[in-house]
């Protein structure tokens, strides 16, 4: 592979992972939790970034050196485990994608006055068009990069107009007044949970970037993906914090739209439409591509018809939204669900890192293993705590 092609793929994988994470749920969660926690939400973001690093660096490395997709690795660790994980991830991906097409429809409603349903259909058509291009990988990479950069620039403008208390945000990031475990689980689940964790790793594998010789570049790509998603999260947090600190009202029906409108007026509201559309359409593509990559091992005919199956996945997601609608709750729940799935998938990868039948003579860095184990324990502990608390509340109710 030529150097310029290699860097295009590495950057494309990074942006695919990042833009898969930055969807309508991402925008909604960040705004809602900033409203609830104020400047202390900075601490939640910091913890989630550290956890994201531990997850991505472990998973991308093992996929690269094993030269296998995550489900095939899991089946070698324990027969049937890969199939079980695939089912969970495809269902989670479908749930997210329903919200993604809805978010794209909402973005076009703000921009062009379409109904959300018509906007969703138009957006789905655009996403499908990407998978009808002869060089799908190159088109997908370029699309993710352009829209990812566009989102950063537009949100940065809103940050300047919102005038957030940056010093307070920085202080509370390291010394928070309050902590919300559900917020951490939801953020981590929405950024590296479920299918999102594997978006970049599977993209690099499909592009032929694999093996121990590619590890330095893969590490750079993984860190770049987390950096892009984190920059967008931080900027959106600061924009939301600026609005919250001023005491301006945020509508519960559409929290991120309120932030943009309160910060920059009607022009800001239009910018929200662009950001929502960009976030949603890239997530539609990332979710569909990665979810289908988890069933490619099920039958030999699936890789031959991959684009058709991805298109079907997008069509089904769109039809479910049009017939059922109202996906906001689904987005929050899907993010939390992915946080529960993460300990299972990461622990599987960590076991695989020490199985010679999977990674051969490769030696996994001890510090990454320790980091990964800590993430598994922390996420499993927080998930169980939240589950137990909700169970108690249910019985008390």
From TrEMBL:
Membrane topology, as annotated: Multi-pass membrane protein
Annotated Gene Ontology cellular component terms: plasma membrane
Location(s) in or outside the cell: Membrane
Keyword flag Ion transport: no
The keyword Transmembrane belongs to this UniProt entry's keyword annotation: yes
UniProt cross-references to Pfam families, sorted A to Z: Nramp (PF01566)
Keywords: Membrane, Transmembrane, Transmembrane helix
GO biological process, one term: iron ion transmembrane transport
Transmembrane segments: 36-55, 76-98, 110-133, 142-161, 181-201, 222-247, 267-289, 309-325, 331-354, 366-388
Protein name stated in the entry: Divalent metal cation transporter
Organism: Adhaeribacter radiodurans
């Amino acid at each position: 592979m030529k150097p310029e092609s290699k860097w295009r793929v590495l950057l494309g994988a990074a942006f695919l992972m990042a833009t898969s994470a930055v969807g309508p749920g991402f925008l909604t969660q960040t705004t809602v939790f900033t409203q609830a926690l104020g400047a202390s939400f900075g601490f939640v973001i910091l913890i989630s970034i550290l956890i994201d690093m531990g997850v991505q660096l472990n998973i991308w490395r093992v996929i690269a050196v094993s030269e296998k997709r995550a489900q095939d690795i899991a089946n070698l660790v324990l027969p049937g485990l890969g199939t079980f994980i695939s089912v969970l991830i495809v269902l989670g991906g479908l749930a997210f994608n329903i919200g993604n097409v809805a978010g794209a429809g909402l973005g076009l409603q703000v921009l062009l006055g379409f109904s959300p349903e018509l906007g969703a259909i138009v957006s789905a058509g655009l996403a499908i068009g990407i998978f009808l291009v002869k060089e799908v990988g190159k088109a997908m990479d370029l699309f993710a990069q352009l829209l990812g950069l566009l989102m950063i620039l537009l949100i940065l403008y809103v940050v300047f107009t919102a005038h957030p208390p940056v010093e307070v945000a920085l202080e509370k990031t390291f010394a928070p007044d309050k902590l919300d475990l559900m917020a951490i689980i939801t953020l981590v689940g929405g950024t590296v949970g479920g299918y999102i964790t594997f978006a970049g790793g599977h993209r690099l594998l499909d592009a032929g970037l694999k093996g121990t010789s590619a590890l330095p570049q893969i590490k750079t790509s993984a860190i770049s993906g987390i950096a892009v998603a984190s920059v967008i999260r931080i900027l959106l947090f600061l924009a939301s914090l600026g609005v919250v600190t001023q005491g301006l009202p945020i509508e519960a029906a559409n929290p991120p739209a309120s932030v943009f409108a309160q910060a920059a007026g009607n022009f800001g509201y239009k910018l929200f439409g662009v950001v929502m559309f960009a976030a949603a359409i890239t997530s539609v593509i990332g979710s569909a591509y990665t979810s289908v990559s988890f069933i490619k091992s099920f039958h030999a005919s699936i890789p031959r018809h991959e684009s058709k199956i991805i298109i079907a996945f997008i069509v089904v997601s769109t039809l479910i939204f049009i017939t059922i609608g109202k996906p906001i709750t689904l987005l929050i729940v899907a993010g939390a669900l992915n946080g529960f799935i993460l300990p299972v998938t990461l622990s599987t990868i960590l076991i695989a890192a020490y199985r010679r039948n999977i990674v051969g003579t490769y030696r996994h860095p001890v510090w990454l293993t320790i980091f990964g184990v800590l993430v598994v324990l922390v996420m499993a502990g927080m998930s169980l705590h939240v589950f137990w608390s909700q169970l108690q509340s249910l019985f008390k109710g």
